[in-house]
Amino acid sequence: MRPFLFIFIFILLTVCLADPAPALQQPTNPWATIPRPPHAVSVPYDSQAERQLLDLANQARAGTGLAPLQIDEGLMRAARKHSALMASQRQLSHDLPGEPALPQRLAATSTLQLSAEGENVGLAPSVAEVHRGFMGSPHHRQNLLNPDYNVAGFAVVRNGNMVYVTEDFGQGPPSAKKARK
What we know:
Blueprint: H1 2-17, H2 47-63, E1 70-71, H3 73-89, H4 102-109, E2 116-124, H5 127-136, H6 138-144, E3 151-159, E4 162-171, H7 174-179
Helix pairs in contact: 3-4, 5-6
C-alpha cells in the first residue's frame, strides 16, 4: 500500500506545482476578444417596426395637438445600439453595465446640440404592445407627449419572440425641426 500512496502524493505534488493550465493563465492582451454569450443575438433591426413606432407616437401626439417628431439619424443610431445591447444581455434597462449615460450616448451619435433628452425602453411580443405599455405608463407617456421634444430615434431589435425597444427623444434647435421636414 505504501508504494501506491507514494505515487499518489508524487502525482498530486506534480500537478499542484506545475504551471497553471493555459485556460487559467491571464491573457497577454487584456483587451482580447471576449466570447459572445450563448444568448447573444445578431442585430436584426426591424426598420418597418421602427417606422410603426414613429407613426404610433405621432398619432398620439397629433391627438393632443402636438407637432410630430422628426427622426434624427444620430438618435436612431444611439437607440439601435442600446436596443441591441439590451437584447444581447436579455435585460431591460436605461443604464447597462459599461455603457455611457443617455446624454453621452446621444452626444456621441448625433450632431444636434440637444437642450433636453429622454428615453423610453420596453420589451413585449409586439411593437403595438410596447406602445400600449408606454401610453399606459405616466412617465413613458410624458416622454412621448412632451411638447419640447421635436426629434427622436426609435429602435426595435427582435430576440426570439420578443422585441426590445428604445425610444430616444431630444429637443434640438428649431433649425433641426425645419431641416428634417
